[in-house]
Amino acid sequence: HTLLVVSGWETVTRDKKYPLDFSTNSLYISTDSERGSRDMIRVEMYKRGEDSDGGVEISFYSKWEVWDRCNGYSYTTTNIPTERNKIWKISRTATHISISCNGVE
Question: Could you count the other beta carbons within 10 Å of the beta carbon of residue 69?
């Protein structure tokens, strides 16, 4: 997977913390995983210190499973584009997280 940072797309390093201010930015992740591959995107969000402030998981199982770790919601969706290459956009406000894939929420 790759991650869009200010300087351009960067290969993701597992367990590395990437600074991002969600109040002014969204997180973009590029994947080429297909449904059923059992791959996973996991994004942990932290406060300015080291305390976890929630996160998001997107699982590429037989169903698309999304887990909003900030609010404790888990749901499956079929509203994911069928193209293999996907750009995921994760945005966060004070009250919710929104996720879109190739422009589809």
Answer: 18
d(CA 66, CA 76): 6
Cα–Cα distance, 65 to 15 (Å, whole number): 21
Token couple for 67: 């887990």
pLDDT tens digits, one per residue of 57-83: 888 876 666 766 666 666 667 778 888
DSSP-H helix ranges across the chain? none
Q: Which one, of 63, 96, 51, 52, lies nearest residue 42 by Cα? A: 52
User: CB within 8 A of 34, min separation 6: which ones?
Assistant: 60, 84
6: left (phi over 0), alpha (psi -120 to 50) or beta: alpha
Longest pairwise C-alpha distance within the chain: 38
How far is the C-alpha of 101 from the C-alpha of 86, rounded, in Å? 6
Question: Which amino acid type is present at position 20?
Answer: L
Place of tokens 């997180």: 27
pTM of the shown model = 0.80
